[in-house]
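Propose amino acids for all 350 sites.
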């Protein structure tokens, strides 16, 4: 597929500086781009590479207006690059039908133009939407509902009663609807609390490889529309993740926690159970969240602190040895002063 640069400008709401008739056949990085391809520069420090890249055109910010090659000027170069890359990498859906080595319950209801690869299992009373794709080794257990245009990559496991919306992507090894981790002590014995709820995943959600989302104890664990969850994330029972939130790899969210809309949890963030994180909050990598966090601000550290408080605290750490030394010195001086005052008092008593 070839596109003229001016056509790409219309696609990303940008403007062309230079020859808008030039043909673009693909997308590549600054270093690897060849003639006929387009690349992008999102940070000013990479501007010196503008004259070195072999790309036929470059996506840049609107502040860049001069170069020895055509430019596509936009407000957000990285966003424009993502849209152009999507345009060139997108392939029309071609259904491959149902492989005879798949097992589909006679009570399951399948939509039009589905693709089911070998060794897929679809259980009793499942409902599968149009153009859904199931790669080898996928299990969709009984009474589950899968929306149209969803893609399940190899070895995804969907437990009974799970609800999955439209255009949902589940990457390899994701486990949806396994039991929540619920036990109660009877003396030293751990007594399992039955996990009888379900998981509901709304439209346009993407869930990474080997991520686990536990079913609710009662009710639902819910992943709202447009949320994106990275690889190796744990979402526990009865958690609610709000619309358009981003959960980065190795984060763990304990039970009954509510994550607002457009929240970002960076890598290895740990969130305790039964708390709430407000809309538009951003929690930095390896933070530990143990109490409610209001929205619309950033947090760092463990326990997580508002960004300004965290910066003040962290900048004090290198000074602690010197502060300790000063404190010990002051304690010694104070002790000597108290001893001197005590002796003076005794002399006066005489």
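Proposal:
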């Amino acid at each position: 597929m070839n596109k003229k640069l001016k056509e790409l400008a219309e696609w990303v709401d940008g403007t062309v500086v230079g020859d808008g008739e030039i043909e673009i056949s693909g997308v590549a990085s600054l270093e690897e781009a060849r003639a006929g391809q387009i690349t992008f520069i999102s940070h000013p420090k990479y501007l010196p590479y503008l004259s070195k890249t072999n790309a036929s055109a470059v996506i840049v910010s609107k502040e860049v207006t001069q170069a020895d090659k055509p430019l596509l000027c936009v407000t957000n170069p990285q966003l424009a690059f993502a849209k152009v890359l999507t345009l060139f990498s997108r392939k029309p859906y071609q259904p491959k039908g149902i492989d005879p080595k798949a097992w589909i319950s006679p009570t399951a209801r399948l939509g039009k133009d589905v693709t089911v690869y070998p060794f897929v299992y679809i259980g009793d009373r499942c409902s599968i939407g149009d153009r859904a794709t199931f790669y080898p080794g996928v299990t969709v257990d009984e009474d589950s509902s899968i929306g149209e245009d969803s893609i399940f990559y190899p070895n995804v496991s969907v437990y009974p009663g799970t609800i999955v919306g439209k255009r949902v992507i589940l990457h390899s090894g994701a486990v949806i609807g396994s039991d929540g981790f619920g036990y109660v002590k009877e003396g030293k014995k751990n007594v399992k609390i039955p996990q009888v709820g379900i998981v509901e995943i709304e439209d346009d959600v993407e869930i990474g490889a080997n991520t686990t989302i536990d079913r609710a104890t009662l009710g639902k664990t819910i992943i709202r529309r447009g949320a994106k969850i990275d690889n190796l994330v744990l979402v526990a029972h009865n958690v609610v993740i709000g619309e358009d939130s981003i959960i980065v790899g190795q984060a763990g969210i304990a039970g009954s926690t509510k994550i607002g809309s457009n929240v970002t949890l960076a890598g290895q963030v740990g969130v305790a159970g039964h708390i709430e994180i407000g809309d538009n909050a951003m929690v930095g990598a390896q933070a530990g969240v143990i109490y409610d966090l209001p929205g619309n601000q950033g947090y760092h550290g463990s326990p997580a602190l508002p960004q300004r408080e965290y910066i003040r605290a962290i900048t004090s750490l290198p000074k602690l040895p010197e502060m300790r030394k000063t404190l010990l010195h002051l304690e010694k001086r104070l002790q000597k002063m108290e001893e001197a005052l005590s002796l003076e008092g005794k002399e006066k008593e005489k």
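The two ends are 106 Å apart (CA to CA). The domain at 97-309 is CATH 2.160.10.10 (UDP N-Acetylglucosamine Acyltransferase; domain 1).
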